[in-house]
Every structure is written in structure tokens, then in C-alpha cells.
Design goal:
- There is one protein chain.
- With 457 residues, the chain is of the alpha/beta class.
- It folds into 3 domains: 123 residues, Response regulator (Rossmann fold, 3-Layer(aba) Sandwich); 172 residues, P-loop containing nucleotide triphosphate hydrolases (Rossmann fold); 137 residues, Helicase, Ruva Protein, domain 3.
- A 5-stranded parallel beta sheet has the order 2-1-3-4-5, sandwiched between helices. A 5-stranded parallel beta sheet has the order 7-8-11-6-12. It has a two-stranded antiparallel ribbon with strand order 9-10.
- α10 packs across α12, α13 crosses α15 and α14 packs across α19.
- The longest helix has 21 residues.
């Protein structure tokens, strides 16, 4: 089977259901065929029947522990890579496990991206050399983008189309909408995926410092330049350079950047040597660059060089269908980072989330959920743990925008059918939302969203 077509197989072993669900959902979304086991004995039985490329197992479990799972995995297939979860106090045991052939260990509580990166390295290691330029579960990275709205789906399609190119991309959108995530998705879906992704916030640096950061400098180029410094362009060579808030760059530096885009070469500050660089530029801005051009603050020729491909990321208030998916994602993410059971949201909290205008966009939503989980009691997020301004703004916010009249009849028919299915499931399970969601194949947060959407309560 072609590498791009086949799924990598993973086994997740943990006696905690929430951990199994979290990891299974995470890696299934990334294209893995994931199986789970609640203890060592069940895991070993699966290992005897099937082959897995990656096994993720807790170290301490009732009965047969993670070491037993490791030994069984290696006995059946020495190429299976095993990652061990361990508590801080048992690190010595995890190190011992590595002597038996474990790939690595992770101490609890851990951040989800830690294990994602370790698994990514495993797949890069086992991927055949002939498939180095073929997309696997890791590539495109657009699979990690979270959202269910039409806008997000179109965004994912656009990224998939433009990623293989080497042309510059300009990403437009308000602060907090996820412009850097889009830039990383473009890089991860491109042929440069295994090369550096280097990011620089241009608004955070004064012009003189920014020039040195971009191009590097030679020893003695200015006061304090005691050593030669390599700039971001050289660090990003053969990869992607992400210039965030590009609209804040001084026009003098814009001129130098224009030359890089045209000629593919730079000179360090204080140096005379011309250095060839192969870098794809992805830029982002929350400003109206056409207005900046009219006011003489942005070079028009530089704008057109950056704007070969243009992507606009809509604010969260314009894509409310993304909210239930984002809420579920962040709740799971922070629950596991904090080492607790996955929390649930009260229905009125979900209603507040849907009506709040989210001026800080996805970043604000993420921060609100992290704060709520820190303050939550009994593993539930209630309105009591939400910021006061969120409650006031949500109560005063206008209702979400409706679809245009042209599409109304088709949307109404689809919504009516969906509403009937949801109402039927709720009646069948006596309004037990968890059971109804499982029956419908929905996440609980998605069901809560649709109940609010259709006014079923």
C-alpha cells in the first residue's frame, strides 16, 4: 500500500477512560487507526492478535503493568515503538523501561503537544526514505485545525491548494483569530515540512533591532555587537519564515525585504558578503494594508510581492459553528494538562459562549476556558467561574447573524431534519444529553450547541 494511503496503527493503554478517549480522539483526527485497552492484560491480548507501530502505555496499572506491555510489544515486533507514561516519583522505573527498548517516557501531568511531537518523530523515523516527500498523517498539518464552520472548511481546502507552492502568502485577520496556526498549517502541508519554520513578531521590535533579527549582523556592526549573529532568514533557509504583523515594518526594512523576495539573497548588517537564501515567506497582518499604502506607510510593490496568495481568517463572531468544536478541544486540552477528568459545561455556560461576541477571538476563548477549569469545582464549568465582563457582554450581544434569504429554503429543510433527529434522541433518552449525543454520534458540546440553536429547551 502507498505510504500516503495507509494508516499508521496505534494502541493506547491506560486504566483511565478519559485518557484513553483523549488520546484516541487526538490521533484518530490525525489519521491513525487507534485501538485502546483498559489494562495490561487486554493490551497484551491485542498485541498478540494485531501489529501496532506505536504503543502508548501507562507505567502503573492494576495487574500487568506498562513494562509487561512493553515486553510483549517487543517480543511480537521489535520495530514497535513504545512510549511510557509515568508519574514523577517513578521516573527511575521509566528509565529502566528504556533499557528494555522503550522509545521514550513522559512524566504526568503532561502537555498534549509533548506526546504529539514524540509520535511525530517516531513516524518520521519509520517512514520509508522513498516516501520522504509524500504526505502522511502529520502532513498536512491542516488536520490539526479545529472548527466546524463553512469558513473553516473552505480555509482548509485553500491551504491544501496553495501549500505545495513556494509563493508568498499574506494572511489577514484580527488579532487572536489564529493566523500563525494557518501559517504553520501551510508549512506542514508543503514540501518544506521537514525544514525549519521560523516565526518573528515584527511589531514587537524597533526597526534597528528588527533588521538585525531578520538579516543577522557581523561582529562590530554596531555598539554591543560583540559576535556575529545569524538572522531569521538564514535560520529559515530551505524552510518557511513567518512574519507576523508585517504591516508594522518600517519602510526602510520593507525595501530590503523586497530585494530578498526578488533576488533570494541577503546581507548581514555591517557585512558585505551576499548570502543566498531559499525561504518561503508567509506574512500576517491585522491592518488594512491598502489603506497603509494610500497613507505612504507601506510600499505597494512590497505588498504585491507578499500578496501572491491571500487568505482571510474571519473573526470568531462570524463563524459561531466553530465554537462547540473549539470548546471541546480546549476543555480536553486543559483537562489533561491539569491532570483532571475532562470537565463538562453547564448548558447556560454554553449559551453564553454562543452569544458573546468574542472580541479577542479564539485566543480569548482559549484563555476563558483555561481560567474556568482552574476555578471549576466538581469538574463542571458553571457561569460562576466565568469573567464578569463575559456575562455582561453576552447578555447585551445581538443575536447571531442569520443565513441569507437565497439559501433559506435549503437550510431550513436541513435544519428541520436535524432538529427532528435531535429532539427524537433527547425524548428517547429522557433528555440525558450524554446518552443522546452518543446515540447521534455527536460530542456533547456539539449537541448543546444545536439544542440552543434550535431552541429545544
Amino acid at each position: 500500500m502507498e505510504e500516503s494511503a495507509r494508516q499508521h496503527r496505534m494502541l493506547v493503554v491506560d486504566d483511565r477512560e478519559n485518557m484513553r478517549v483523549l488520546l484516541a480522539d487526538t490521533f484518530t483526527e490525525k489519521g491513525f487507526d487507534v485501538q485502546t485497552a483498559a489494562d495490561g492484560e487486554e493490551a497484551i491480548a491485542l498485541i498478540d492478535q494485531e501489529q501496532f507501530e506505536v504503543v502508548i502505555t501507562d507505567l502503573n496499572m492494576p495487574g500487568k503493568d506498562g513494562i509487561a506491555v512493553l515486553r510483549a510489544s517487543k517480543a511480537v515486533n521489535p520495530d514497535t515503538e513504545v512510549i511510557i507514561f509515568t508519574a514523577y516519583g517513578t521516573i527511575a522505573s521509566a528509565v529502566e523501561a528504556m533499557r528494555f527498548g522503550a522509545y521514550d517516557y513522559i512524566t504526568k501531568p503532561f502537555k498534549l503537544h509533548e506526546i504529539e511531537r514524540k509520535v511525530e518523530k517516531i513516524i518520521l523515523k519509520i517512514r520509508p526514505v522513498r516516501a520522504q516527500n509524500i504526505q502522511t498523517w502529520i502532513h498536512p498539518g491542516i488536520r490539526t485545525m479545529v472548527g466546524g464552520s463553512t469558513h473553516t472548511k473552505q480555509l482548509v481546502k485553500m491551504i491544501a491548494k496553495i501549500a505545495p507552492s513556494n509563493s508568498a502568502v499574506l494572511i489577514r485577520g484580527e488579532s487572536g483569530v489564529g493566523k500563525e496556526l494557518v501559517a504553520r498549517a501551510i508549512h506542514d502541508a508543503s514540501p518544506r515540512r521537514d525544514r525549519p519554520f521560523v516565526a518573528l513578531n515584527c511589531a514587537a521590535l524597533a526597526p534597528g533591532i528588527l533588521e538585525s533579527e531578520l538579516f543577522g549582523h557581523e561582529k562590530g556592526a554596531f555598539t554591543g555587537a560583540s559576535d556575529r549573529r545569524i538572522g531569521r532568514f538564514e535560520k529559515a533557509h530551505t524552510g518557511t519564515l513567518f512574519l507576523d504583523e508585517v504591516g508594522e515594518i518600517d519602510t526602510h526594512i520593507q525595501t530590503k525585504l523586497l530585494r530578498v523576495l526578488q533576488e533570494g539573497e541577503i546581507e548581514r548588517v555591517g557585512g558585505a558578503e551576499t548570502i543566498k537564501v531559499d525561504v518561503r515567506i508567509v506574512a500576517a497582518t491585522n491592518r488594512d494594508l491598502r489603506d497603509a499604502i494610500d497613507k505612504g506607510r507601506f510600499r505597494e510593490d512590497f505588498y504585491y510581492r507578499l500578496n501572491v496568495f491571500s487568505i482571510e481568517v474571519q473573526p470568531l463572531r462570524n463563524r459561531r459553528d466553530d465554537i462547540p468544536v473549539l470548546v471541546d478541544h480546549f476543555v480536553r486540552k486543559f483537562s489533561i494538562e491539569m491532570g483532571r477528568e475532562i470537565a463538562e459545561l453547564d448548558d447556560d455556560v454554553f449559551g453564553i459562549f454562543l452569544h458573546y461576541p468574542w472580541p479577542g477571538n479564539v485566543r480569548e476563548l482559549e484563555n476563558v476556558i483555561e481560567r474556568a477549569l482552574v476555578l471549576a469545582e466538581d469538574n463542571r464549568i458553571t457561569r460562576d467561574v466565568l469573567p464578569a465582563e463575559l456575562l455582561v457582554e453576552a447578555d447585551q450581544a445581538p443575536p447571531p447573524p442569520v443565513e441569507s434569504k437565497a439559501a433559506e429554503s435549503l437550510i431550513e429543510r436541513k435544519d428541520r431534519l436535524e432538529m427532528e433527529l435531535i429532539k427524537g434522541a433527547l425524548d428517547r433518552f429522557r433528555w440525558n444529553k450524554t446518552k443522546a449525543a452518543e446515540h447521534l454520534g455527536l460530542k456533547r458540546t456539539t449537541l448543546q450547541y444545536k439544542i440552543k440553536k434550535y431552541g429545544l429547551e
